[in-house]
Design a protein that fits this description.
CATH topology: Thiol Ester Dehydrase, Chain A
Oligomer: single chain
Distance between the termini: 21 Å
CATH architecture: Roll
Order of helices and strands: HEEHEEEE
CATH superfamily: Hotdog Thioesterase
Structural class: alpha+beta
Radius of gyration: 15 Å
Number of strands: 6
Number of domains: 1
CATH class: Alpha Beta
Largest sheet: 6 strands, antiparallel
Shape: globular
Strand content: 35-45%
């Protein structure tokens, strides 16, 4: 079990966002609220606050990308074998609708072969409170063996 999964299980949904923001401060800028984290799946919410709005009064595109990278990264971390490491190398984003509500960021990667080495695609869907998909993201994670010392 990954250290990030152990942390999640030890402190729970409510406190996990603060812990993640300590590890990687930029993720704290979207004030994520975690709903689920397990192998192949992460769900979090990003509240629609003024600090994540763009000049159109909708959720900023980069705030959605931030949530997508957080969900995909955590999903990858808790899903790969313990002798592996990962890093994002590409992000493909399709903005489908303006988001003017809180959003749910769902990484549902149950069909990903987490034992594979190399580049894998991790899907993320972002939806508004009505359930409308506002953004679809595919993040390519490069999976390699951990270096031995």
């Amino acid at each position: 079990m990954s250290d990030l999964q152990k942390l999640y299980e030890s402190i729970g949904n409510e406190r996990y966002a603060d812990a993640i923001a300590e590890i990687a401060p930029y993720f704290g800028t979207i004030s994520p609220k975690f709903k689920e984290l397990r192998s192949g799946r992460c769900i979090l919410e990003t509240p629609f606050t003024r600090s994540v709005q763009n000049h159109l009064g909708s959720l900023h595109a980069i705030a959605m990308c931030n949530g997508a990278e957080l969900a995909a990264g955590l999903t990858t971390d808790v899903s790969i074998p313990p002798d592996r490491r990962w890093i994002p190398v590409e992000m493909n984003v399709r903005y489908l609708e303006k988001a003017k509500t809180d959003v749910t960021v769902t990484c549902d990667a149950g069909n990903v072969d987490w034992t594979a080495l190399g580049d894998i695609s991790v899907p993320v869907r972002i939806s508004d409170t009505a359930g409308t998909t506002v953004c679809q993201v595919s993040i390519t994670m490069r999976i390699t063996a951990k270096k031995t010392q």
